[in-house]
Design goal:
heterotrimer; A mainly alpha; B mainly alpha; C alpha+beta; A: mainly alpha; MetI-like fold; 14 helices; flat; B: mainly alpha; two-stranded antiparallel sheet; 2 strands
Amino acid sequence: MKSKKGAAMLGKFLFYFGNTLIGIVFVSPLIWMISASFKPEAKIFANMNSLTTFLPTEPSLNNYIEVFRRINMANVFKNTLLYIALILIFDLIINSICGYALAKFEFRGRKLMLSFIVALMVLPMEAILLPLYIEMSQLGWVNTLQALVIPFIAKCFSIYMFYNFFHDIPDDLLEAAAIDGSSPVRTFFTIVMPISKTVYATVFILDFVAHWNDFMWPFLVMTGEDKRTIQLAVQSFFSTSPVHYSAIMAALVISAIPMIIMFIFMQKYYVEGIASSGIKG
Amino acid sequence: MAKTNKLSARKKDERAAAYIFTIPAIALLVAFLVVPMVYTVYYSVFKYQVMRPNDITFIGLANYQKLFKDPEFWKALRNTFYFTIIVVPVQCVLALALALLVSKRFRGVSIFRTMYFSPQLTSMVVISVLWTVLYNSNPNTGLINSILVSFGLQPINFLTNAKTAMNAIIFMSAWQGAGYQMMIFLAGLQGIPTEQYEASAVDGANKWQQFWNITIPNLKGTIKYVIMITMIQAMKLFTQPYVMTQGGPKNATKTMVYYIYTQGFQKGNFGYACSVAAVFFVIVVAMSLILQKITNAD
Amino acid sequence: MKKVISLLLASAMIVGLTACGGSNSGATSSAPADGQTAAQTTEAADGAVQITIWQPSDKESVENWWVDRLAEWNAEHPDIQVNREAIDRSDSYAYDNKVATAVTSNDLPDILFVDGPQVSYYAANEIIVPISDYFPDLDDFVPSTVAQCTYNDQLYAIAATESSVAFYYNKDMLKECGVDTDDLDSRTIDNPITWSEMTAIAEKCTTADHVGTHIVMDHGEGIPYALEPMYISEGKDYISADGTTAEGYVNSDEAVKTTAFLANFIAKGYANVDPITDEFLNKACATMIGGSWEVATLTANADFDWGVTYYPVADDTKKAVSPCGDWSAAITRDCEHVEEAGQFLQWLMNTENVASYAAAIAKPATRTSAYEDPAMAEYKNFPLSLLVEQLQNTAVPRPRTPSYATFSTDYAEAMTNIFAEAASEGTVDEAYIKELLDGVSEKFTEDYTTYYAE
């Protein structure tokens, strides 16, 4: 009995130890970035041949002071959160209903639509930047919020993700709702959505991160300090030649904080999937 | 009789709902993906220097003729496929392993998930800048090489040798991207009914058997999805070579998207870049359709 | 509760649909307020002319300089209101991309800042217009900047500041390695160090802890910029003087020899093929070919004794040449008020403004008279005086050719490959160098004949 308990303890220890070790490998750049953000410029790329590069030598808040002096953070955060929030609200609704229809409804053109979405998934943004800009210009959207939001609401990746997830929802559940007199639309909003928090959380996290790191598109379509998004603000430190990484690192750390908070917060929805909601496959 | 009526009414309902549900997304995709794509194909038959939009000349298929004789185009295509073929299995297996490590609830699970996901929280540009420094060829200034030397090994010119540059980028990309796919696997793992595990535990199955007999079959859809999106993202490789190697050395890391971008923007050969993009579209669209056929076959 | 949610979702959907459906009408509601950057909306409500400037964003002192100067101008000229947009660029190409994108849809501002060698590219494509009329007397400007901004005998842009490149050395390291630093300190513009002296210093100073020297290795514009004087000193520039061909220039025997000289540093391990940022400052190299901006960085941060001397010259010619070029202001073809924009540029580039701008951005001024301004006092003393001396006597602008963007990209790529090959093989292969430089020349010819040849 005692040895069994000991073994369990050891197993637990090994499990945590292993997780921590792997975790460190993954988190090390973030640590390097954070430690660099407290260093003076001359020390950032010093000692790159030893692990001490991960420690903040001569720490100071100067870099952060410079960032806050040069960037109107409140404004930048407001701009970024506003456009990402708009994208995500529509993204989650429009892409999920589309994915659901493709997964659960029988209708003419379903297969074709699915192929169309899969085919479009592969289009690289970099290859269509210029034509998309020309289109924005023709619509009169250059330098407006529309240009940041509307082209990025529908996402093949998200539709496909929702499609895959909804596909696995047992038909019995939907049948039961239908027999109770619920319309297909109603069934989706009242039954399917509430049990699909995990997939909504996943799409939310992945799309939030993707847009938070957006640089090229906001850079091309938006001009003006009052319209700066977070990545534009961060990149403004690259503009000055010679490039000083100290302030860049501080700006990056600040820009990563909302994402980390969002990520930890959204994870709440990961503990309860279909498994715990009472439906069996 | 009444029942069939009800059923067909439901089918009708469903069909109406289907169009209401799909049209917004499809309309947006057509407007902001298909239209730019059509533009791209349109411009590909013109001589179009990006700085002189008022002076574009129709040249038929000349851009395409040039492209098929362009060794850099073929090299870029080959590099793109090489990257994809190697990075997809590596990254997917890594992602699944990570997901399994943190799929259960335990004290601190959210910290570990955040750690594994953290490379995603910094932009690719910054990750690339950092790894360029880590990969530095001189043991006095590069962490990885200083470790190699301390073990008595020869330093490696990771990014400045044509033989190693792409592999170095592959390794870094798999490390950076795995957290993304881990999240998707996690969502899939949450969907597996716990009863299945409980039942098999009663039957005396060990963890390894459970993994093969329960986890994998239940994750089939997710695995297909993850492979597909990893593959598609791999085909779009751009930022890493752009920041770390500028396509070199000796074109070893020049990818299709990188080539399209440098031709179209940096050098201003917009018409030609459009023809490369058009050919690339055809290749990747065909590929993803074939892939979809294969994954739906079973 | 559920009803509320579904109602909310439904209404959000409708908003979404109308937002996309009514795209055309939606645009008009917000465009006038936001569209001031585009040159089309240059007429303000009160009839004043609106001039918009695009310039890469810069450090705080420069941003503040603009705020103060523009406030002054706008107060004195109620009829010509000037507004500057600081463009955040992630790398040297991002700004060019934004310009190229704006060009496709006539969204350029009235005044555009252009990097020196791009002036000919933009001028040849008629993105920017001649401004000779506003600057009839250019004698006060250093010849290099005037040359760089001139295309087809017309002035297309005007710069307030210049740049230069020189040879920096870590005196502590050099003394340790037995190099006579007093000799280096005592060099004059007529007696700069030669290539073989540079090689000898690099060889002596390559130790287990650091390499001997640092040659620009940024994979981008830095390579053609900082290394061009080597080529000119050996006898052949990258491109013919009329900007029409690279054949027999970038791939000439002289160019191959120059390239081999540079690749030798890498092959022998005297310089790193992928140096880290601030390699010299971090004491990972003993000397470097570095820009004028390094003076400020080193003065502020270096914890060692350092010196700087003139750009090295080829042994056989001893011809002294130095790099130059900086951002310059140009009026775009989308500008509807060229006269007013020209007036503003005249004022912007007066001696007083050039001096205070140069001081704010910590770069050498283009106007000779600006150096009399107290703001520029430190340029009278070493080491900054050395850079000014180079600018006034040996500076040569980069090739003036409409195909510069293509040349720069291809040449930087070829050099990167040559250096990588030298690093992996440990030897310099002249045949390989010739092959790659031939490729650069071919691509130049192709670009030039496709778009610009008559």
